[in-house]
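Box 4.2: Ligand-aware structure prediction
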Amino acid sequence: MKLIAFGVRKDEEPYFKNWEQQNDVKIKLVPDLLSEENIDLIKGYDGIIGLQTTPYKREYFEKMKDAGIKILSIRNIGIDNIDLDAAKDNQIPITNVPAYSPSAIAEFTITQIMQLIRHTKIFNEKMSHQDYRWEPNISRQINQMTVGVAGTGRIGRAVINLLNGLGTKIIAFDPYHNPELEKRGMYVDSMEAMYRKADVITLHMPATKDNYHLLDAAAFSQMKDGVMIINTARGTLIDSEALIKALDSGKVGGAALDTYEHELPIFDHDLTGQKIDDPIFNNLNERNNVLITPHIAFYTTEAVKNMVEVALNCATTYLNDGKMTNPVVEID
Ligand code: NAD
Ligand code: COI
């Protein structure tokens, strides 16, 4: 069995090497993400271990079919960037790693909520030029606020568990109701109901065609004045231009964005000293009440280890036994 892994960072290598030794399977490690430039490397391999937020296009699946690839095992959660129809059409089964560490993303979400509420970016900026005054940046306490959790899957529930310890009032929306949260009366009937009640709204749903720009001008207009928005899910959930207008008017009091709809040319690239040719990004990034991070909510040693090991196990289980663990696309 031969495997090839794309987008392999230095911090992942020890987990790949260790797994290789324990399982006696050779894996070709490619540092670059799968792309037009390197897709021909897949020839001669049985399975691909992928990781990326850049698109997995139809042409890639056509090339995978031609190369005799039997499985694409992605070592992350989101599948919004994958042409799933093309995978089916070309008979390429896909697995993912749906629960590598909900806590990693949840802990980061809480970090960003707290930083926004306590104005850390503003104080850091003031202190950088020796302004140590308190006023006017007084904070509110999270134990007096209502946090709206949109999406109560693995990550949303991990966020709720952490919020419980902070004494926050929590409301949630998800078309699917988790029985335990239902018993606790946590659900509101619609996003609109959440908009009316929440001081902080944190997004934890996958990006789909239906929820593209879920938070748009109409949504912001229904929210409480000064609401804080947290997005550690996917950038396309927020209309960034509408967010800018809502920040300008004060309707939105702050935002923490770990994902951004046009993030691909920016996040996880070293652009030191370069002008970023994205006025929307620059506008958001320059604001002292907007915290932008480069899609790092997942980035912990625990998560990375699980991502690598589970993805490799998914691929080999399928190649050895034909059994799909964590199926995204199944082929009859
Ligand atoms: P999950 O599948 O366990 O839960 C998603 C939940 O969202 C489900 O309960 C679903 O019913 C709900 N949902 C779907 N559409 C909705 C809508 N329109 N409104 C409200 N709820 C809706 O997924 P998860 O593990 O909790 O992950 C959520 C998302 O987080 C992923 O899809 C991915 O996009 C993102 N993510 C980001 C990072 C990061 O590093 N920033 C890391 C991992 C995952
Ligand atoms: C995911 O797992 O979906 C993420 O957003 C993490 C990223 C490394 C792709």
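In the box above, the bound molecule is nicotinamide-adenine-dinucleotide. The mean pLDDT is 97.
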